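Exam revision sheet. Question 4 asks you to relate a sequence to its structure. Input first:
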Amino acid sequence: MPSVYIKTYGCQMNERDSEAVAAQLVAKGYTLAPSEVGADVILLNTCSVRDFAEQKAIGKMQNLAADVRKNRPNVVLGFMGCMAQSRGQELIDRLPDVDLVLGTQKFHRAADCLDEILAGRRDKIVDVAEEQGSEATIREHLLYGNASKNGGGHRPPLQVTAFVSIMQGCNQYCTFCIVPYTRGEERSRSIPDIVGECRQLVSQGVKEITLLGQIVTSYGRRRASEAAVAGRARSPSEPVENLEVRRRDEDIAPYQIKDGRSAFVQLLNAVHEIDGLERIRFTSPHPKGYGDDLIEAYARLPKLVESAHLPVQSGSDRVLKLMHRGYTRERYAGIIEKLRRARPGIGITTDIIVGFPGETEDDFEQTLTLAREVQFDNAYIFKYSQRRDTPAAAMPDQVPQLIREERNQRLLEVINEIGKRKYSALVGRQAQILVEGPSKKNPARMTGRTRCNKIVVFDGADRHRGQLMDVKITRAGSFTLYGDPAIVNL
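Answer key, structure tokens:
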């Protein structure tokens, strides 16, 4: 059977989608290639959040096409994911050597499409249509990787962490974001379906599960009407106030609130009951989804780790309103305060955009002061990137690129200074880690992750993979901790 190489750009959702596609292909007899060299099929799973990610994928495909068409003309080239969804036929028009363009609701069709192309029954395939029930099709996992990369027929070491997709799409419609147009409206899987997948993973040795959703705390909402969605997609510049009115009418929870607990907290409760599961994480939430029931869950559920990635995007109320985020700086800071009361020592990370249209120096200074006030453990900082067909792309007062870059650097310095101080404060303390495997930078050493989501590198052995163990922190690097092997039970 043909060999397939999949290269992934973007977020954890994309990583999970690529893994599922790979698992489906392996189940149909395809083999996984370690690189594009020699692969019969090359698929790029793309991201559209920033222009840089799109241009990087297009540039990669141009280089691949020039090489394979000259030396290996029968290689199948394909785009999947968010850019494939947003651009569709345009990608083949621009790059005629591309054979397959597969949208975000069609990942489960990858094997069938490749079979058609390889058998010569279809020349080129573009499939970006909506598909009802697609949210429940991403279940397959590759927990053992590619055997050919790990000693031929010997089964590779066990994977101890896994992502589980609980929903697809987004109804938030932040003015800077293209995701609702590439991932579609929110569609949630059922609790029994998700729990069944989690149980299967645990039975295969997984110790930690991360629940994934575009806005994971929106889990459990009913689909919006097709007409309303189509109307939004046709009018990306529609005033965000209109979208908010629609959302109140459309988003009706099929999982009723029980004992004051939302659908997402009900899901956390159900996953928490799985025997053998040690840790639960989730990403990415929205501040609007952090009700008291979710904060209480941090104090009540020991498997829910003391770690929260909570995107803030800006420290300015004026900019937050332009972004259509739906909360204020005060509301955000209040959530952090409640979380730290519920779980002292909780690790807090965030996403921040600098240079959003209309952002003044005063607005940016408010972001700096929020970072100092909250004391994030880490932050992912993004320079605003115009995305076509989003309201922000047409907003006045676009911030010049040089100012975006300068603000990015200033904020990065603040985040790094806070992070250095917080990580250094952990030196001399003990921490529990879940050992995940060899360090990526130094395979001779092992790496694990604390409950607060901090990476710890230590001298250990592969037999420690999957173990929960206490280590003493001896040194802090740049957002990495180093543990003392003396207290590891060898």
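Marking note for examiners. The CA atoms of residues 170 and 186 lie 5 Å apart.
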